[in-house]
Design a protein that fits this description.
Blueprint: H1 10-20, E1 40-52, E2 57-68, E3 76-80, H2 83-93, E4 103-110, E5 118-122, E6 127-131, H3 133-136, E7 143-153, E8 162-165, E9 170-174, E10 180-181, E11 183-185, E12 188-190, E13 206-213, E14 219-222, E15 225-229, E16 232-240, E17 245-248, E18 251-258, E19 261-268, H4 273-294, E20 302-308, E21 316-319, E22 322-326, H5 328-331, H6 338-350, E23 358-360, H7 362-381, H8 387-395, H9 402-419, H10 440-457, H11 459-473, E24 476-478, H12 480-490, H13 494-503
Parallel strand pairs: 1-13, 19-20, 20-22, 23-24
Antiparallel strand pairs: 1-2, 2-7, 3-6, 3-10, 4-7, 5-6, 8-9, 9-17, 11-12, 13-16, 14-17, 15-16, 18-19, 21-22
Bound molecules: zinc ion.
Zinc ion is lined by residues 1-2, 347, 351, 370, 373.
């Protein structure tokens, strides 16, 4: 995600930090955890989804195949269903448009059986313990398959999971609404809470095959590759950590290829349609080009760039193979904001490298994907004199020059040690010291951490570090420890150790 508060307006960030450094606090230790392949592993998800645009509801049948890679027999498994947490959040925070929303898992059964399995709901119903019963237990090395039926209302909300109604039609963002197997480490289930400011999604890779039914007038964008005939979209997506769909009846698409990747650039039938379409096309082209050259290859064959109507100051949201970008200001706004569009979209595309390819535990160590992505957005894309930069400079007088981007980066570096004193990157939101807001560590301090390392190592060595780190951990999961050890391999100097000690809590 692009941080809502500080996607662009660093002034707001600095003001926030000023307030925060006036506070004193104690930090609690964050336990490191080791990466392991001894886990209960989700292999595949087969989903049949039906969108009802009259009642704004979604029916889901999800078949989950998993493998027991632990040493003991699995008798119970944990599922995550974030819909109760999302709907609860929306009824509280977007209460005017969201009353009495309902969601329910109607059944969980074993493959080929109609007998309902016993369920125990925990963590505000976001964690569902499924008792597989005597016939469902899975021995070490064996696989199991369950079928989940769920029906949920779709909230009236712009981002993540929701619909919006405009004069032109309706737009549905469908994510955070599909049940999945909880992440598992050494046989222990990881049940991070739903967290609306940031993310707490699965890091596990699995293959998805999906059938999505919607009225024929709807254009459908989805993670992976898809084809739509007569309102039925068939989707295939392998090796992904999360899945998303956007369906809209006033959206069109334009496809092109860059570095061998097919980009589907969707656009809304809005006020600045032509400029939006051209800007997003050029930003996507340039971003894919520089990230491929300076980091490594994009992990999938296709990327969907999809507009949502997020409103003021919200950048976008990343999913594997699909990014939601903010089309609000160009759809109906009186002041189209190409600056935010450029920052937001180049950021979300960056997440394809850090989040979709190199995975991490978002809730506990969100600094990894957000920090590296912010670096990609500001240092790699933000300083690139490409087609998008030239075009947006022409159509937007406020769009900053590369020279001013460099100057603001250097200004931030000058005050980083003062601004981020006692802000540690590897502290989860539920362990924050009093007064710390989400984003300050995850986006800003982490960006400075990487910038300080770049200065300490030198551009060339740091550039090689990024490439090698990506090559080694692409389609794997990393922890703070993995990152730190890899940095030390490149530069074991006292200066670099000092940077690590300043930003990373032991
Ligand atoms: Zn982000």
């Amino acid at each position: 995600m692009t941080n809502k508060l500080i996607s662009k307006k660093t002034i707001i960030a600095i003001a926030l930090i000023a307030v925060m450094i006036c506070c004193l606090w104690l930090l609690t230790p964050e336990r490191a955890y080791a990466a392991s392949s001894k886990k209960v592993d989700a292999l595949s998800y087969k989903m049949t989804l039906t969108l009802d645009t009259k009642s704004n509801s979604l029916s889901e049948i999800v078949t989950i195949k998993f493998k027991n890679n632990t040493d003991s027999t699995v008798r119970k498994i944990y599922l995550r269903d974030m819909t109760p947490a999302v709907l609860k959040y929306d009824m509280k925070n977007y209460s005017e448009d969201n009353k009495d929303l309902k969601t329910k898992i109607t059944s969980v059964t074993l493959k080929g059986s109609t007998k309902k399995l016993g369920l125990t709901f925990k963590k505000g119903r976001s964690a569902v313990l499924v008792d597989l019963g005597a016939s469902g237990q899975v021995k070490p090395g064996a696989t199991g398959t369950i079928k989940v039926k769920l029906k949920t209302d779709i909230p009236n909300r712009a981002d993540r999971f929701g619909y919006q109604k405009t004069k032109k039609g309706k737009l549905y963002a469908l994510s955070f609404c599909f049940p999945y197997l909880a992440d598992n480490l050494n046989g222990s289930w990881q049940l991070d809470p739903f967290f609306d400011d940031g993310e707490s999604r699965s890091w596990d890779l699995a293959d998805y095959s999906v059938t999505f039914k919607a009225p024929k007038s709807y254009k459908v964008a989805a993670t992976g590759t898809s084809t739509t005939t007569e309102g039925k979209t068939t989707i295939k997506a392998d090796d992904i950590r999360d899945f998303a769909i956007v369906a809209c009846n006033f959206m069109a698409k334009d496809s092109f290829t860059v570095k061998g990747i097919k980009v589907n650039n969707y656009y809304l039938d809005g006020k600045y349609k032509t400029k939006y379409r051209k800007a997003t096309k050029l930003i996507s082209k340039d971003a894919i080009k520089v990230y491929t050259e300076q980091i490594g290859e994009y992990p999938y064959d296709e990327l969907d760039v999809v507009p949502c109507l997020f409103g003021f100051s919200f950048g976008g949201m990343e999913y594997p193979g699909l990014v939601m970008t903010n089309g609000s200001s160009t759809f109906s706004g009186s002041l189209p904001d190409y600056w935010s569009l450029s920052d937001g979209l180049s950021h979300e595309i960056g997440h394809q490298w850090f989040y979709a390819a190199v995975g991490n535990r978002e809730y506990r160590e969100g600094w990894i994907d957000e920090g590296f992505t912010t670096y990609l957005e500001r240092q790699i894309y933000g300083l690139y004199n490409g087609e998008a930069y030239k075009y947006i400079r022409q159509i937007d007088d406020l769009f900053p020059t590369i020279k001013s981007n460099k100057a603001s980066r250097d200004e931030l570096l000058k005050t980083a040690r003062k601004d981020y004193k006692n802000i540690y990157l590897n502290v989860a939101p539920n362990k924050y010291p009093k007064g710390q807001e989400y984003g300050v560590a995850e986006y800003e301090a982490s960006y400075m951490f990487l910038q300080e390392l770049r200065v300490s190592m030198g551009d060339e060595k740091f550039g090689q570090f990024l490439k090698d780190f990506y090559a080694k951990y692409k389609m794997k999961r990393v922890t703070t420890k993995t990152v730190v050890n890899f940095i030390k391999k490149y530069d074991n100097s006292k200066k670099t150790q000092g940077i690590i000690d300043f930003y990373i809590k032991k």
